[in-house]
Write a structure and sequence with these properties.
CATH architecture of the largest domain: 2-Layer Sandwich
Number of domains: 3
CATH class of the largest domain: Alpha Beta
CATH topology of the largest domain: Heat Shock Protein 90
Shape: globular
Radius of gyration: 25 Å
Number of helices: 17
Structural class: alpha/beta
Largest sheet: 5 strands, mixed
Distance between the termini: 76 Å
Strand order of the largest sheet: 3-5-6-8-7
Strand content: 5-15%
Number of strands: 14
Helix content: 40-55%
Length: 506
């Protein structure tokens, strides 16, 4: 019996042999794939949970885990030296720099639940004059702020923590992380600020480790870094970047609506967990989904009926995703041009090139970071005919709550669970209303985005389709930094109408 040994295994087993760089890269790519697969199960499973079904505290914990999983994914890319051409989902970062509002939103999602658990107030805001983008390494910036906010939350038993981005007189940006905790010992500060850039010595304890990590990361970005005890009590870290690193982007084009209503989608995914997560996300986006478990099933399903979009994993048994793409593209008829989006946990350049050469229109990397993000990734690839099959957008003449949706919900879950749902929906709508009102002046687009995002899910859960539509519009305006006073006023009034409906029906 002969034993076949792959070239890489032979290279490893040869006495005294030195593994080639190619072998090392392959192992790192495979390790990255396995790590990303685990993160996909974590973030994908949590993303599939309907936030409207959760109490506020639980929803914040889910957001915290999702944000942490995104950050770990970013660290995996950095540690394993992966090439990634797509924007990194962690903290809203990409290789062209840092979007300040999304960077701050990542920190809000990461730390809100922990601050609430400790009885702390957490304020994270970008002032109106702050630069909107930073042309610096995104991973370094995200890690630096994470260490500083973690330090602030960890040292305060209660009180307040804030992260504020503001403009400097010279046109740069100042990032300030402050807390109301006790003063930091002067000798600790001296050790942190006095160590050389390459000095591994660290004798200031856990608190010093977080601050030291932040200082070193700031130095790698070319930022000025200061730590000080505040005269009125508390402690703060100051990070300043000059004008050359900053820009104020023009209002961005509206992101495609995360709504796949009417779209007929073929999903091919062999992993049961990923399959369940992707299916729930697509159906939450109102798509009609046909699910297959491998490439051979996907080809059979494609031959049996027409689809608007094919979404498929690359690594599948029997027939790979690459071969499915090639089979479809080689048909020689109009259906050969169906849009195809690949799902993959591989991020190496070679894999991206292979997927593109096979004929995929786009690639979405696992783990999928959320329902809205998946919808926005897929929506641009839908053919124009899908819009004609979508239901009409709700208007002023429609009821506050759709009786058919509301009645079906009540029949499905029964009176006891309906009462429990009432409490959650009432609390979430009231909290969103208060957040929107507080964000009016000075205008806080980050808070408006957050509140309207929650409204989209909560309103949809009880059939408040008119409020859901208004929340979508408000969310889009907030992302564009467009005038939104009228939309904000209308959304608040519609929340009041839904709350009045629910109060009457109890």
């Amino acid at each position: 019996m002969s034993i076949i040994v792959s070239p890489f295994e032979a290279e490893r087993s040869r006495p005294g042999g030195v593994r080639s760089q190619r072998a090392e890269l392959l192992d790192r790519a495979l390790l990255a794939h396995d790590l990303r697969g685990g993160l996909s199960d974590i973030s994908g499973g949590l993303s599939a949970i309907d936030p409207a079904s959760l109490p506020v505290e639980t929803r914040e914990q889910v957001e915290r885990v999702l944000a942490a999983a995104d950050a770990v994914g970013s660290l995996v890319h950095a540690a394993l030296g992966e090439y990634r051409e797509e924007p990194d989902p962690a903290a809203g970062l990409d290789f062209q720099g840092v979007d300040v509002s999304r960077l701050l939103d990542h920190q809000r999602r990461r730390w809100t639940a922990e601050a609430r658990r400790k009885g702390q107030s957490l304020r994270i805001v970008a002032e109106a004059d702050a630069p909107t983008r930073l042309d610096i390494d995104p991973a370094l910036c995200g890690r630096m702020l994470t260490n500083l906010v973690a330090h602030a939350i960890g040292r305060c038993e209660a009180g307040g923590i804030e992260l504020v981005a503001s403009a400097t007189r010279e046109g740069g940006i100042l990032l300030r992380v402050a807390d109301t905790g006790p003063a930091v010992r002067q000798d600790t500060l001296e050790r942190i600020l006095g160590l050389g850039a390459d000095d591994p010595a660290m004798s200031a304890g856990v608190e010093g480790l977080e601050l030291m990590a932040a200082r070193r990361l700031a130095a790698r970005m070319g930022a000025r870094f200061a730590l000080r005890n505040r005269s009125g009590g508390g402690f703060e870290a100051l990070i300043e970047l000059g004008e050359p690193w900053c820009s104020r982007a023009e209002p961005a084009a509206p992101e495609p609506e995360a709504d796949l209503a009417g779209a007929r989608i073929l999903l091919a995914e062999d992993n049961p967990t990923n399959q369940m997560v992707a299916t729930q996300m697509l159906r939450a986006l109102r798509a009609e989904v046909t699910v297959t478990s491998d490439g051979a099933e996907a080809i059979a399903a494609f031959e049996a009926q027409e689809f608007d979009l094919v979404v498929l994993d690359i690594e599948m048994p029997r027939v790979s995703g690459l071969d499915v793409i090639r089979r479809i593209r080689s048909r020689g008829d109009a259906r050969a041009r169906v849009p195809i989006v690949a799902l993959t946990a591989y991020a190496m350049r070679d894999h991206q090139d292979q997927i593109a050469e096979a004929g995929a229109n786009a690639l979405v990397s696992k783990p999928i970071s959320g329902i809205e993000q998946l919808g926005r990734a897929l929506a641009p690839h839908l053919p124009s005919g899908v819009a004609a099959r979508r239901p009409r957008a709700p208007g002023a003449g429609d009821p506050v709550v759709d009786a058919a949706i509301y009645g079906a919900l009540a029949d499905a879950i029964g009176p006891d669970l309906m009462n429990e749902l009432f409490e959650k929906v009432f609390a979430d709508l009231s909290a969103a209303r208060a957040e929107l009102e507080a964000a009016r002046a000075p205008r806080n687009t980050q808070a408006i985005r957050s509140a309207s995002h929650i409204l989209i899910s909560v309103a949809g859960a009880v059939g408040a389709v008119r409020l859901q539509s208004m929340a979508r519009s408000l969310n889009a305006l907030a992302h564009e930094n467009a005038p939104l006073d009228a939309a904000l006023t209308g959304c608040v009034a519609e929340i009041d109408a839904v709350l009045a409906f629910l109060a009457r029906d109890r």
